[in-house]
From TrEMBL:
Residues 42-186 form the AAA+ ATPase domain. One of its GO terms (molecular function) is GTP binding. Pfam families: MeaB (PF03308). Gene3D superfamilies: P-loop containing nucleotide triphosphate hydrolases (3.40.50.300). It comes from Desulfacinum infernum DSM 9756. InterPro entries: AAA+_ATPase, GTPase/Isobutyryl-CoA_mutase, GTPase_ArgK, P-loop_NTPase. This is LAO/AO transport system kinase. CDD domains: MMAA-like (cd03114). Belongs to the SIMIBI class G3E GTPase family. ArgK/MeaB subfamily. Keywords: Chaperone, GTP-binding, Hydrolase, Kinase, Nucleotide-binding, Transferase. It comes from the Bacteria.
Length: 318
């Protein structure tokens, strides 16, 4: 069997090899993705976002355990901060999920952001495609905690879970105009801490003020209290996720089609951006243009970024 056939058969090593090639941006990975894409669309994708230290990894770990008890297979994509020294992922999330390493029904991959904003690495959507084609029933995507820029997760997931903890009231107020609007479900983790009632009250007030996803008309975002380390609240969170899945798929408002279309649009635009930039740089180098020299000219104010880009585009359109 070739690589694509092995992945479709659920081969872990073949999947790991392609994910590595995707992360390394090897051209061969694109051909494999083309063949895998028609086999996608079966997995349910759940995104987790929130500030650092709120317990996203522990929640993902607990959910994976519960889904496995239900006989479902799970893929986990954990976006780690990039090491400033090596450019690779620090792999903190993978360390926290060690108990799943011997379970063939769970596939875990840590990704480095490599300076990519939005909370997701640009390889994330392609890797979701691979895990979906591999046959995973549920894909859990955990984003690096960088605050309001983490809105990309809402475009790649079917259900987005926003995680916070008690004592972050000021932060909730600060982010209310941005990241609050991407959550389908809100989780107050470490709910045994002092101030949990106040945090829940603030979240309810913001939801009542209308700070919720505009594409979720008819859905009332629930607030779930959890203590992830103890497993408390995990069944309630799973129930909320399942209710949101049914809300999307069983009503006649076209929400499911809209969510799927939004994810396809994001993937298309990301791929277009990446391929267009790569092709322009390749053609620029073929003409003897030097990127560093252009940067020097822009820095010295001999030209500006807008003129440089316009010249490059016009050159290619002739």
């Amino acid at each position: 069997m070739n690589l694509v056939e092995q992945i479709l058969a659920g081969d872990v090593r073949a999947t790991a090899r392609l994910l590595r090639d995707i992360d390394d941006q090897l051209p061969s990975a694109r051909e494999a993705l083309k063949q895998l894409y028609p086999h996608t669309g079966k997995a349910y994708i759940i995104g987790f976002t929130g500030s650092p230290g709120v317990g996203k990894s522990t929640l993902v770990d607990q959910l994976a355990l519960e889904y496995r008890k239900q006989g479902l297979t799970v893929g986990i994509l954990a976006i780690d901060p990039t090491s400033p020294f090596t450019g690779g992922a620090i792999l903190g999330d993978r360390i926290r999920m060690q108990r799943h390493f011997t379970d063939s029904g769970v596939f875990i991959r840590s990704l480095a952001t490599r300076g990519h904003f939005g909370g997701l690495t640009k390889s994330t959507n392609d890797m979701i495609t691979v895990l979906d084609a591999m046959g995973k029933d549920v894909i859990l995507v955990e984003t690096v905690g960088v605050g309001q820029d983490e809105v990309d997760v809402a475009n790649c997931a079917h259900t987005t879970v926003l995680v916070t903890i008690p004592g972050m009231g000021d932060e909730i107020q600060a982010i209310k105009a941005g990241i609050m609007e991407i959550g389908n479900i809100f989780v107050v983790n470490k709910a045994d801490r002092e101030g949990s009632r106040k945090t829940i009250r603030e979240l309810k007030n913001l939801i009542e003020l209308g700070l919720r996803r505009r594409d979720d008309e008819g859905w009332e975002p629930p607030i779930i209290e959890t203590e992830a380390l103890k497993g408390r609240g995990i069944p309630e969170l799973m129930d909320a996720i399942e209710k949101h899945r049914r809300f999307l798929t069983e009503n006649d408002r076209g929400q499911w089609d809209a969510v799927v279309a939004k994810r396809a649009k994001m993937q298309l635009l990301d791929t277009l951006r990446e391929e267009a930039l790569r092709e322009l740089l390749r053609r620029m180098e073929a003409r003897g243009e030097n990127l560093d020299e252009l940067v020097r000219k822009v820095t010295a104010k001999e030209t500006d970024p807008y003129t440089v880009v316009q010249d490059l585009l016009q050159c290619e359109l002739r």
